[in-house]
Amino acid sequence: MSGSTSSAPNVVPLRPTKAVKRRSEAKWGSDVIAQGYCIIPALLFRAQRRLGLSATQLALILQIAEFWWEDGRLPWPKKETVAERLNITEKQVQRLVRDLEIRGYLKRVTRMTSHGQTSNAYDFSGLVAKLKELAPEFAEAAAAKRKVERRGGLKRQPA
Fold first, then answer.
1. What's the whole-model pTM score?
2. What is the C-alpha separation between 5 and 89, in angstroms, rounded?
3. 48: number of Cβ within 10 Å
4. Cα distance between the two ends of the chain
């Protein structure tokens, strides 16, 4: 994954530090990390059920996100590539994308070349907005959990 410079004021390009890369290599191995890696927010996994995403829908999102290398530049993998990676048909990919699009998590963007239409680009802004909406609630729940689990637990309030 590579970072880029963006004119969007709310986007901060991430350039993993050497320490982050070393930690990743320690976990996965340098040969594995040398093939590339993709930054995915943990909230996407934690909120999967709240978002109503099936395992296949989440897998589709992850496969498309792997092509999202730079902010401001939408990913545009071929349906054929995604279908092959997920071991499903291109028609199934289309149905999954259509369902995610109906729910507002994904938007197909037609791409044209001088030779005609090519693979669609995929805009995740709806999913990102939903995750941003859920983030405070998940942060509050995590903070409450830490309070309860700390030594001594929650202090009782006087009656």
1. 0.79
2. 36
3. 15
4. 55
